[in-house]
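job 3f2a | input accepted
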Amino acid sequence: MEIPLSGKRVLVTGGTRGIGAAITLAFARAGANVLTCSRTGGEAADRLARELKATPGEHHIVTADVSRSEDVGHLIDECRSRFGGLDVIVNNAGRITHVPIKDLDLAGWREILDTNLTSAYDVIHRAVPLLGPGASIINVGSGSALAGIHNRAHYTAAKAGLIGLTRSLNKELGPLGIRVNVLSPGVVQTEVELSEEVTSRYQQMTGLKRLGTPEELANVVLFLASDLASYVTGAVVPVDGGI
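job 3f2a | predicted structure (243 res):
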């Protein structure tokens, strides 16, 4: 089944590597026009730019750090000037560090909360005037939000916050015809290499006995963005292989 996304105007934050790049390319290949952002540019952004150039449609990569409100303002201005509006927002930008709570200072806490949670609020807050009936917002969370992870209290708190943000916005924006959902990934094999020991442990924890791929997550994002999911909102959708 093809997912009908031709002509949709899409913003993907943090969309130049890993899961974000897979989501960005999946939208472009499905006929959408996509604008994404990179905090630093570099080889991954250059590689994605080449792939997008070879894909029909209007696609753009903007330099923006979504933990900085002025950069978010610039990002939404780019969406407005290039597309005139938005049909889909994917809040994918994220950052993780591994710090015991006794060593986690306020600056470290704020860095992770700002990147993983506050940025999603800021993007949505600024983008609401660009959205209309039928629009879809997908916030990329984590299965760790409810389970917790050792030495990552700040990260799991931020991802749990995305669930609350999503469920409230579902009720606030629903009357406008705007849907809001959380994609909750499990462990995914990206360009960040995991040790054999860690990979094996996570494989054994899943029902499918393997890690996921970025493309498998992107498929679900496309569904949530499309009219096929027109009655799906306020949901936390696990894509975790049954972990």
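job 3f2a | Residues 106-127 form the longest helix (22 residues).
job 3f2a | closed
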